[in-house]
């Protein structure tokens, strides 16, 4: 399914002279146990009252710590020195990458602002960030860019229940781009944690994704909605047992008018695919024809595996993100726990309009990998 919206450039006169700010860092490693600045990992935001900024970022994370170490590689970013996002990942094989995507939104100011990315290894090993993309998109006040967030939520109880209701209040009716993100951890009680996200209509956009480990794994999802009045996105959660508690961190929803961009195209698949071969299979693809002077490609897919007995990790989860037949990003992740459900994705800036975008899935070791809930979004910027 491909939906196109937003061909208006409403109110963009005030941002025509302000460029999108973006960085790409191919790789950086550190053995520091404290957060260390990533070289080339700083975005300078120019002054501009009347602007609103949307930050989108993705990367892969890995550590040389021994297999099954729960907390090792961690990344964070600050905006003007304040931590606004974090992420980690846990693997069942040393130096194998896991996924990370995040999002934040903020207002322009009369002074310049700074976004800085930092990396550490909490297990006294060596952490590496690869394929780091970060894009700060300037939007006008008429974009009605809003963000609702809760920085920390304590989760208890084994029944799925609402833990955060994040409201968006549109200035006027219209089509809105919606982006949701959160990190989860089974700490403090090693109880496992599930996250489910519903849009303002109650439709499930992310279905009960399970994180059975300590690492602050990020979950990322995007969609479009027609909003005519105040609406609430609901973050539901539960633990894996009745005795312990877990946490959600940096739960947030951002929304902005689709007609504030030159074009918005989104394609999704709610079907599923089971991959057992090492040769990649296209799970979801979209033929696109966005308009604009530059473009932002966002993709995400949920990967899971079936748990054998006893419960162990096993599937070598491989996903490739392709644009016009060219490889954009790849993630080859081995989870320590087969019950782990993850969103795997990429964010990247492009000068030329993409015409075909796809998500490919494979298994590196023959153990079945299940792909579901794929999303592809192309933003056409003025």
Q: Can you characterise this structure?
A:
This protein is mostly beta strands. Helices cover 0% and strands 63% of the residues. It has no helices and 25 strands. The strands form six sheets. The protein has a five-stranded antiparallel sheet with strand order 1-18-25-20-23, with no helix packed on it. The chain has a four-stranded antiparallel sheet with strand order 2-9-4-7, with no helix packed on it. The protein is globular. The two termini are 25 Å apart.
Q: Low-confidence spans: pLDDT under 50, at least 5 residues?
A: 6-15
Order of helices and strands: EEEEEEEEEEEEEEEEEEEEEEEEE
Relative helix content:
under 10%
Strand content: over 45%
**What can be said about the biggest beta sheet?**
5 strands, antiparallel
Mean pLDDT across all amino acids: 93
Number of helices: 0
Strand order in space, largest sheet: 1-18-25-20-23
Structural class: mainly beta
Number of strands: 25
Amino- and carboxy-terminal Cα gap:
25 Å
Principal-axes geometry comes out as globular
Radius of gyration: 19 Å
Name a few traits of the molecule.
globular; mainly beta; 25 strands; four-stranded antiparallel sheet; five-stranded antiparallel sheet
Outline:
With 382 residues, the chain is mainly beta. Helix content is 0%, strand content 63%. Strand 13 (193-198) and strand 14 (204-211) form a beta hairpin.
Lay out the secondary structure.
Layout: E1 2-5, E2 21-30, E3 36-45, E4 51-63, E5 73-79, E6 82-88, E7 98-107, E8 113-121, E9 127-140, E10 146-156, E11 161-168, E12 174-185, E13 193-198, E14 204-211, E15 217-227, E16 231-239, E17 245-257, E18 263-275, E19 281-287, E20 294-304, E21 316-323, E22 326-334, E23 342-350, E24 356-363, E25 369-381
